[in-house]
């Protein structure tokens, strides 16, 4: 070695090379073990989530947050539900955990809160409710042990999107009753248009039809079943599944591997009649060239059982603050201002979705129409299948429902299997509650 | 030397003649002389590698074996002995998963290995054969996940495969390739064949080039052509390469994951899961960590045992006569 030239790889002696390799490997191992979150510079707080579509709305909310609380929000997305959940669960008890999370409400939030790793936001909720910044009926979806552990981010209504031009061409109007809905399906099928989207692709969509039909037939039973107070093998679940099987037999459903994105595209093109989905699909529809309130609109699926109280399903993402996050003080200040009308409006309008803050005007005419229906009919809001019941149970029963969607005549054995899983999962859940 | 020259009285220096016997050498190197070349002197050099293998492979393996005796949800655990293994025997999803894994092994041995051999032999003496081989090898450079995305466009109900079938009048053949068992597993094996064949072609092509020209010429002089040439000359000469290709195929098929994950996530209704996917879902999605460890152990035993038996039977025995 002459020493005149900067050292290159082949000029390094063995010891340096070993040291470098060792240090590199340790860094890699360390980085893997520590999870993903590092603190942000002062004045910035990261919000971690699994949904790419939430990135721009978080940035938009961050701009308003800057004017309201002097803090910016930095979206950090792990675009895989599985990886995101793993990072959160494995890092929650370490100082490298993300400060703010976009999580799920209901039992998934309870599951997270009972680890003790999330901040009690009861005071923030109380203050927001006093100012009229949050719909009080949503509180139960965010509580564990009577304390609030998260704030709602969006308020997505589970509706049916449809193409207004296709309906008009076929002499159909927005369904107001169950009979209107059945008539629309029959007419569209006759016109050569597949009336309804149904999917097992991506696993989770398998629950959509079970949830939608059961809540329109027996909303109270749905609520009780999902909270472990009723059993799956029951005349009411059987009836719901027979209804779905009937739709499948009539050829009203799309192929079950049609993704949500493709379904939205086909609906805009007029090849598909209706797509059941949360109103968060508004951003997707707009991105694909659909004009909400013009060629694309949404309706709340009417009740099949006219004696039951009008009901529909909602979905809220949960804004969670962690106990051990590196910027936790700033994160708490963000939480205090998250439901501020300016911040909530920026978020909801960028997402083209409903807002949990009643002071926020609707993001588009489709949302406005749904909110009008909810107000006028005093619709009871039920949480989504995915958020109800122990997460482990839901993870398994979506696969059972996929088996049912593929073979609707198997509903009795599917219901028995679901009950076996429910017995075990609820037992584990309740034992953990005692601990 | 200078000192010696200036000394008045010559000093008698006892000259040592270095004698090195095998006995001597063995004794010295076995002692603590610190000289290089002894049996333990390699240990410091091997230590980093041993450490990495120990920390990243051996410890996790034994930790998984230990963990498989517990009912563990990631937060709390209790000792349950062999319960997890008893559950495996009764679990229909595990049974389906083992069956799918066997499909993958059989399919990978039948399709990419045979296709690779056929293409390599067919293009060996062909004009522009190298170009054809290159084209067939191209998919191998794409990652498994990207390949799966491409095949998703082909295999969905409204995808290219069904469009083509309908286009040529075979409407009744059009179906949901990824929706029902067993065609979802079989379709994914075909997709994997598209990708994996290229590497086998390259490996067999290398093997073909290594066959001595004299052997081939001698066979030709004896009148061997076509099938006889392939059966009695080419195939035996490719034996070493076949061992490598088949060995890799077995291991790769047993750990198939990325393509299945992207195409079906093991669904619908867990119908297309292999052991690797079942292990992942039980451990990381359902948080049955102990049960997942038991599946991991079963998978490891299958991988090691099948590789061991195959290689033992196929590898030429190089040990001396007396030690066999």
Automatic annotation (TrEMBL), chain A:
<dbReference type="InterPro" id="IPR006311">
    <property type="entry name" value="TAT_signal"/>
</dbReference>
<comment type="similarity">
    <text>Belongs to the bacterial solute-binding protein 1 family.</text>
</comment>
<keyword id="KW-0732">Signal</keyword>
<dbReference type="InterPro" id="IPR050490">
    <property type="entry name" value="Bact_solute-bd_prot1"/>
</dbReference>
<dbReference type="InterPro" id="IPR006061">
    <property type="entry name" value="SBP_1_CS"/>
</dbReference>
<keyword id="KW-0813">Transport</keyword>
<dbReference type="InterPro" id="IPR006059">
    <property type="entry name" value="SBP"/>
</dbReference>
<dbReference type="GO" id="GO:0055085">
    <property type="term" value="P:transmembrane transport"/>
</dbReference>
<dbReference type="Pfam" id="PF01547">
    <property type="entry name" value="SBP_bac_1"/>
</dbReference>
<protein>
    <submittedName>
        <fullName>Extracellular solute-binding protein</fullName>
    </submittedName>
</protein>
TrEMBL record, chain B:
<feature type="transmembrane region" description="Helical">
    <location>
        <begin position="42"/>
        <end position="62"/>
    </location>
</feature>
<dbReference type="InterPro" id="IPR050809">
    <property type="entry name" value="UgpAE/MalFG_permease"/>
</dbReference>
<dbReference type="InterPro" id="IPR035906">
    <property type="entry name" value="MetI-like_sf"/>
</dbReference>
<feature type="domain" description="ABC transmembrane type-1">
    <location>
        <begin position="98"/>
        <end position="310"/>
    </location>
</feature>
<protein>
    <submittedName>
        <fullName>Sugar ABC transporter permease</fullName>
    </submittedName>
</protein>
<keyword id="KW-1003">Cell membrane</keyword>
<feature type="transmembrane region" description="Helical">
    <location>
        <begin position="186"/>
        <end position="208"/>
    </location>
</feature>
<feature type="transmembrane region" description="Helical">
    <location>
        <begin position="134"/>
        <end position="154"/>
    </location>
</feature>
<dbReference type="GO" id="GO:0005886">
    <property type="term" value="C:plasma membrane"/>
</dbReference>
<keyword id="KW-1133">Transmembrane helix</keyword>
<dbReference type="GO" id="GO:0055085">
    <property type="term" value="P:transmembrane transport"/>
</dbReference>
<comment type="similarity">
    <text>Belongs to the binding-protein-dependent transport system permease family.</text>
</comment>
<keyword id="KW-0472">Membrane</keyword>
<feature type="transmembrane region" description="Helical">
    <location>
        <begin position="102"/>
        <end position="122"/>
    </location>
</feature>
<feature type="transmembrane region" description="Helical">
    <location>
        <begin position="229"/>
        <end position="251"/>
    </location>
</feature>
<feature type="transmembrane region" description="Helical">
    <location>
        <begin position="289"/>
        <end position="311"/>
    </location>
</feature>
<dbReference type="InterPro" id="IPR000515">
    <property type="entry name" value="MetI-like"/>
</dbReference>
<dbReference type="Pfam" id="PF00528">
    <property type="entry name" value="BPD_transp_1"/>
</dbReference>
<keyword id="KW-0812">Transmembrane</keyword>
<keyword id="KW-0813">Transport</keyword>
